[in-house]
Amino acid sequence: MGAKTKILFLCTGNSCRSQMAEGWAKKLRGEQIDAWSAGIEKHGMNQRAMQVMAEAGVDISGQRSKLIEELPDLDFDYVITVCDHAHESCPLFPGHAKVIHRGFDDPPRLAAEAASEEEALEHYRRVRDEIRYFVATLPCCLQSASKD
């Protein structure tokens, strides 16, 4: 088997969407993908994100919120921005990394307007499931991806 594809999932605070994407990539594509996540800023791990991922059988509680600068010096194959702010602020990466943007709604922002905790969690679950589908289709998506 060849080397794993190195993917960085990038979002604003590395607290929710990019953490979910990293968790799904490790769970669903761990044999093919070496997954990392980081943020333009560092907001800490989102408790609701950890809760809904655990409900789906993915434990991201051992992951930590980090800045791009805190990552080891890796030559990523792909950098996938999962929010518009990260896409607009995406730094240049040395090497041959292809940047792909696939924005997802921001669960904390949506949950702020929720009438109940259950309604708030539904926003997280929907985004969790959208990210799962995206990650599950990554091998085909990466084959046809082009640099922005």
UniProtKB/TrEMBL annotation:
Pfam families assigned to the protein according to its UniProt record, in alphabetical order: LMWPc (PF01451)
Oxidoreductase as UniProt keyword: no
CDD domains per record: LMWP_ArsC
Phosphotyrosine protein phosphatase I domain span: 5-141
Native source organism of the sequence: Desulfolithobacter dissulfuricans
Name listed for the protein in its UniProt record: Arsenate reductase
Top-level taxon in the UniProt lineage: Bacteria
Keyword flag Translocase: no
UniProt cross-references to Gene3D superfamilies, sorted A to Z: 3.40.50.2300
Keyword set, alphabetical order: Arsenical resistance
A Gene Ontology biological process term: response to arsenic-containing substance
PANTHER family on file: ARSENATE REDUCTASE
